[in-house]
Amino acid sequence: MWFPRLASDRVLRARPTDAPFVLFQCHGTTETIRCLNRTAEAAGLHAGMRMADARSFCPDLISRPADPAGDVRFLRGLRRWAERFCPWVGLDGEDGLALDVTGASHLWGGEAAMLADMRARLDRAGLSVRLGLAGTRGAAWALAHFGTEASTEEDLLSLPVAALRVPPDTVTALQRLGLRRIGDLVATARAPLARRFGRELLLRLDQLLGEVPEPVTPEAEPPHFGVRLTLPEPIGLEADVMAVIERLLKPLCEKLKTQETGARSMCLTLHRVDHGSQQIELRLAAAMRDPARILPLFARGVAEVDAGFGIDRIRLAATVVEPLPIRQIDPTETPHPDRLQDLITRIGTRIGLENIQRFLPADSHIPERGFLVAPAAFSEAQSGFHTQRPRPLRLFPPEPIQGNGPTPPAQFRWRGMRLHTGCATGPERIAPEWWLADENWRSGIRDYWKVATREGRRLWLFHTPQCPGWFVQGEFA
Q1: Domains plus CATH for the chain?
Q2: Where are the alpha helices (DSSP H) in 188-237?
Q3: Which segments of 307-424 does DSSP mark as H helices, in order?
Q4: How much is the pTM?
Q5: CB-hemisphere CA count at 13 Å for 78?
Q6: Which residues are CB-contacts of 267 (< 8 A; sequence separation ≥ 6)?
Q7: What is the pLDDT of residues 120-137, one digit of tens each?
Q8: Given the DSSP bridges, would you call strands 62-65 and 21-27 parallel, antiparallel or unpaired?
Q9: Which pLDDT band, with edges at 50, 70 and 90, does 179 fall under?
Q10: C-alpha angle 176/182/186, rounded to 5°?
């Protein structure tokens, strides 16, 4: 299977259009066409063409940036779908699939019926496809790209040399020597070809003719992190369920360790004898694979389970996993470095992991933007809170006070208290970040002062020169 318009077909399935459509990619400062639909081809555009030239040829051109990673995911999905025709399906480049249908075509009523079914299903899905069926993988690739679906050996020999899957430079050199067809290569002595073009040309020729085998290698299925246990008799006690979970955790964590991954989310399914089922979802604050740490986290969920007439089958699966490489033991580390994640997980099972938050430093000199608030389970603690000037421990919205002039007032009233300025340090001028729309900072610059009052308060005041006024925004410890 060759999908000549895989990328554009994938995008147009969600947003169909009959207008010229292309996907472009950037090479440095130049944008070139990566994939296009039939209408764009009819307008004279082609892959590799510069977008500036394409827009001049076709003013009504619709363009979108290409997504190679999305195309790969889509092709992998097609590979899994193609397993309905045969079990041996592998990827063939960035836009094709290779299927070994040996012994499977009779299930579809023959090879012709199977090809017709493939084409009909892909047409309904809105995908352009060209099929090639032959005795070798190389011949099938050649027929899909340069010939018809099924051809004789004479038809293969009449195909151009580009059908051998050799580099473009080799194709050009062969054409200059007058070797334009595969039959011309077959009739030429092999020794001069090997000396001139190397072994790759003859290898591709032998693979096409079946002299050298080229098997289809299917992709390995991703590991499945799930275990289950069928009980001889139903159980209903909380201690019995926890004992079964402990038994299931051991092989599951061993499999996670083998794959060097850890679970971030686990799902426990309890099947009852009355054919009902209940699920317990456990979200972890960090990737884990230690049964002793994970087992107590299920206790709260198991306590709320209604066992009914008994539970006879239990399944445990790690639904979300993350890489967790094996680390070398460091004697300088703290003895229990994971207790914080365990505590966050325990609290998160009650109020939700997103509700446990931590402060993170932000790259901004604006006081209100000097930190971020992020869920503790999905972020790492950072120690980047350091500035050239001291910042107050408590920060609150600006509160106006009475004062005149660019220096702090000798006395002022704040929150019902009359305060007297004892010592003032400043000013520190902070300008607004012009690239951000912030209503509080559109008034202009601020001059900040650190004021120690005689009453013991250490406040952070600022003055706005463009609109004279004094405000209190923070208090030092």
Answers
A1: 6-70 (3.40.1170.60), 87-209 (no CATH), 226-327 (3.30.1490.100), 394-475 (no CATH)
A2: 190-197, 199-209
A3: 339-351
A4: 0.63
A5: 30
A6: 279, 280, 281, 282, 316, 317, 319
A7: 999 999 999 999 999 899
A8: parallel
A9: very high
A10: 100
